[in-house]
């Protein structure tokens, strides 16, 4: 994994952890949990996407590609659907956690454009 990507993931994790502690202190447990869950989902989703591109570009075995695709699409997206329909978390907290996906994408693409 790229060093920039590792630093971005660590920074996002630290920021979300601090925000969650503040939210818990403000008695907003469902919001804090929704933020944590959706951020974790976003990071896992992004790492699987990077893995898929790496396997495809390096032309590794089709079994490895199929395994990662199986984890990403039916399993991870089913979990995302269940998170949304469970009603345990406010939708705004889930959407806020999904911003991690956008940040990781930007951090990964921008340095390579320069």
From the structure above, extract its key features:
single chain; 114 residues; mainly alpha; 4 helices
Helix content: over 70%
Overall 3D shape: flat
Category from helices, strands and their pairing: mainly alpha
Count of helices? 4
**Rounded Rg:** 16 Å
If you average the pLDDT, what whole number results?
Answer: 91
Strand and helix order = HHHH
Could you please describe the fold and organization of this structure?
The chain has 114 residues and is mainly alpha-helical. It has one domain. Helices cover 89% and strands 0% of the residues. The chain contains 4 helices and no strands. Helix 1 packs antiparallel against helix 2 and helix 2 (29-58) runs parallel beside helix 4. The mean pLDDT is 91.
Quick gist of this model?
The protein is mostly helical. It is built from four helices and no strands.
Per-chain topology:
Elements (H helix, E strand, L loop, with lengths): L2 H23 L3 H30 L3 H25 L4 H23 L1
